[in-house]
């Protein structure tokens, strides 16, 4: 399972456990309250672990992209015909500032990274 799906799954399980915990509090069922508290702490720990993995993966990917020898901001016409640009430049990686990778790298405009000048 990829990290994004695993993260969503953990969030769903955590939300369900919290709702069941609230219901157990209303009933006054101490056994179930203890069970859901342990479940919530385990899921929270797993959630932090997956988020750390995701951050590490993004950081590594950003480093790989930044290590490419040439980069420049793409013009609006190049952005409009991205397919043609990618066919003409082999190994081109386009990073948008609103993606997770773009936020991790701290770019402000759509930027292309490539092994050779384009």
The number of helical segments is 5
Low-confidence runs of at least 5 consecutive residues? none
Give me the Rg, rounded: 22 Å
Instruction: Please report the distance between the alpha carbons of the first and last residues.
Output: 37 Å
Order of helices and strands: HHEHHEHE
What's the count of strands? 3
Q: Look at the structure and give the mean pLDDT.
A: 93
Largest sheet: 3 strands, antiparallel
Strand order of the largest sheet: 1-3-2
Supply the number of structural domains: 2
Helix content: 55-70%
Using the alpha-carbon principal axes, give the shape.
Answer: elongated
Q: Assign the structural class, choosing from mainly alpha, mainly beta, alpha/beta, alpha+beta, or little secondary structure.
A: mainly alpha
Summarize the structure.
The chain is mainly alpha-helical.
Structural account:
With 118 residues, the chain is mostly helical. Helices cover 68% and strands 9% of the residues. Strands 1-3-2 form a three-stranded antiparallel β-sheet, with no helix packed on it. It has helices spanning 3-27, 30-66, 76-80, 82-88, 100-105; strands at residues 70-73, 93-95, 111-114. It holds the Pfam family DUF2810. Residues 7-53 form a coiled coil.
Write the layout of secondary structure elements.
Layout: H1 3-27, H2 30-66, E1 70-73, H3 76-80, H4 82-88, E2 93-95, H5 100-105, E3 111-114
Antiparallel strand pairs: 1-3, 2-3
List keywords for this structure.
mainly alpha, Ribosomal Protein S8, Chain: A, domain 1, 2 domains, 3-stranded antiparallel sheet, coiled coil
């Amino acid at each position: 399972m990829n990290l994004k799906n695993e993260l969503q799954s953990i969030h769903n399980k955590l939300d369900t456990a919290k709702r069941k915990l609230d219901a157990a509090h209303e009933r006054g069922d101490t056994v179930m309250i203890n069970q859901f508290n342990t479940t919530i702490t385990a899921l929270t720990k797993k959630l932090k672990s997956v988020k750390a993995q995701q951050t590490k993966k993004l950081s590594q990917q950003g480093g790989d992209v930044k290590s490419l020898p040439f980069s420049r901001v793409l013009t609006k016409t190049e952005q409009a015909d991205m397919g043609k640009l990618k066919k003409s430049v082999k190994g081109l990686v386009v990073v948008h500032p609103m993606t997770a990778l773009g936020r991790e790298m701290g770019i402000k405009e759509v930027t292309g990274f490539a092994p050779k000048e384009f």
